[in-house]
Amino acid sequence: MKEIVIIGAGYGGLRTVELLSGNKSFDITLIDKNPYHYMQTEAYGYIAGRFDMSDIAIDLQGLIHGLGPNVTFIRDEAVQIDETAKVIILKEQRLSFDIAVIAVGAKTNFFSFIEGAREHTNGVKNMQRVFEFRQAFEHRLYAKLQNSQNSLNRAGDLHIAIAGAGLSGVEIAAEMAFTLQRYHKIHSEKSQRLEFSLIDAADTILPGMDPYIIKKTEERLHELGIKIYTKAFIEKIQERSITFKDGTILPFDFIIYTAGVKGADLIHTLDTPKNRQDQIIPDETLRLQGSKDIFCIGDCTEIKDAKKVLLPPTAQVAEKSAAYVARSITRLSEEKSLEPFHANVDGVFVALGGKYALGILFKKIRVKGYFAYLLKKLISRSYRFGLEIKVNAGYKKRHVGSHDTLCR
Ligand SMILES: Cc1cc2nc3c(=O)[nH]c(=O)nc-3n(C[C@H](O)[C@H](O)[C@H](O)COP(=O)(O)OP(=O)(O)OC[C@H]3O[C@@H](n4cnc5c(N)ncnc54)[C@H](O)[C@@H]3O)c2cc1C
Predict the structure, then answer these.
(1) Measured between alpha carbons, how far is 110 from 116 in angstroms, rounded to an integer?
(2) Would you say the CB of residue 75 lies under 6 angstroms from ligand 1?
(3) CB 138 within 8 A of CB 145
(4) Ligand 1: which of 19, 64, 134, 299 to mutate, most ligand atoms within 8 Å of CB?
(5) Domain CATH for 36
(6) Residue 135, CB half-sphere, CA atoms under 13 Å: how many?
(7) The domain boundary residue, chosen from 206, 241, 257
(8) Which of 359, 334, 339, 332 is nearest to 347 (CA)?
(9) Are 96 and 208 within one domain?
């Protein structure tokens, strides 16, 4: 039996496991440092208080039970890979492999040239940080509500800054503005004024995206009362203020940092070519250069389209690279040669608060408003539904005791 080890249970890692689990000649081990699959694409709704925790997290043990007896889950952190010995060194144990897939994703890049970014902001790549942010934010809203009932005077404005106007920053800004405007109308119009600032150093929001999406997104953000600052270079972030390079100071009550990502810590330890974002530069078959049996997928990998343009890290690209690698592993087991990987993006959707979204499908078809929202919802619901079916199957298996020792 071939030992396949997949490091990281995000969009890419999970997809690989799902696709390989049907092949009983593979003994598959999935490793993640967390016991849950964090659905980052839904984080905007959780931060804004519209979704709850079950909308963004899925229990990995339950899920793996639902996949079959040839799949095992280990909750541990991979700290090194010994390519020659074909061993993955985890914090608690060592694991040998025939084929390994690195799917560890990315982490927030608190650029060292922005003084105070790490200390004073919240990233969204880590579920614990997102959870803590939401709690702190709700406490603050409650305190404001209390104040508004005790006094006729304005209890203080609430200013939320979002540093980084890529897909995640835009979605979070729009959802928070939409949700808080509603809250503001119902609870505390007298008590505060809401202000949102979306800041990016690039020339536009959503850098690199289709001009139609950029223009329509700007219009929607303006409607939601969000102030957009582009070509705005942040020099310093303090507890309650941002200082820009030109000396302007912007005060805030809460800040979310979505200004950049880089490859997860494990990537840093690998002796393989990497780009400036600490992403692995793989060969054309998504293997580490010079390696026959270590693949890499998703956000931790530099993936380019047919025109050699770097693709932004998305769940869609992570899943496509996973599907390719799962096929390649099957081909290797059949002693067939590998085709090169060709990345293509089917479409992009941007959630813009409430039941409003924008999208482009196959680079041509433009959708907006409620219809785009429904399409985006359909994609996320079907993803989630697929996982839930497996979790339920796993739950049933565990409770009839058919196999109870899958998780080491
Ligand atoms: C707010 C927000 C909104 C987004 N919206 C969209 C969207 O609308 N559409 C879209 O396509 N994409 C979207 N994205 C991007 C998308 O979430 C990522 O591209 C996607 O998660 C990448 O998948 P991945 O499998 O490469 O990595 P991840 O999903 O990040 O998974 C990596 C996994 O590896 C684990 N791990 C890391 N290091 C180790 C280690 N050393 N040992 C063991 N385990 C480890 C982590 O715990 C994690 O579970 C959004 C992202 C954010 C933050």
Answers:
(1) 9
(2) no
(3) no
(4) 299
(5) 3.50.50.100
(6) 7
(7) 257
(8) 359
(9) no
Task: Tell me, yes or no, whether 20 and 59 share the same domain.
Answer: yes
Q: What are the helix (H) ranges across 203-314? A: 211-223, 265-269
Q: Looking at the structure, do residues 101 and 174 belong to the same domain, yes or no?
A: no
Instruction: State the residue for tokens 């390079």.
Output: 245
Which atom of ligand 1 is closest in space to residue 313's alpha carbon? 19
119-152 confidence digits (pLDDT tens)? 999 888 989 989 988 888 888 777 766 766 555 4
Q: Which of 234, 257, 280 is a domain's end point? A: 257
Question: How many structural domains are present in the chain?
Answer: 2
Residue 177 forms part of a structural domain: yes
Mutation pick for ligand 1 pocket among 33, 58, 176 (CB with most ligand atoms within 8 Å): 33
Residue 321 structure tokens: 């690279």
Q: In this structure, how many other beta carbons lie within 10 angstroms of the beta carbon of residue 229? A: 19
Determine the Cα–Cα distance for residues 273 and 324; give it in Å rounded to an integer.
21
**Residue 12 Cβ contacting ligand 1 at under 6 Å:** yes
Cβ neighbours of residue 154 under 8 Å, at least 6 residues apart?
190, 191, 192, 193
Instruction: Give residue 195's domain range.
Output: 117-257
Distances (CA, A) of 27 to 8, 24, 38, 69, 96: 17, 7, 24, 9, 12
Assigned token pair, 90: 């985890």
Q: At residue 331, does pLDDT exceed 90? A: yes
Alpha-carbon gap, residue 352 to 339, rounded angstroms: 38
CATH code of residue 196: 3.50.50.60
Q: What is the pLDDT of residues 62-119, one digit of tens each?
A: 899 888 899 999 999 999 999 999 999 999 999 999 999 999 999 999 998 999 999 9
Selection from 330, 168, 180, 182 nearest residue 257 by Cα: 168
* pTM for this entry: 0.92
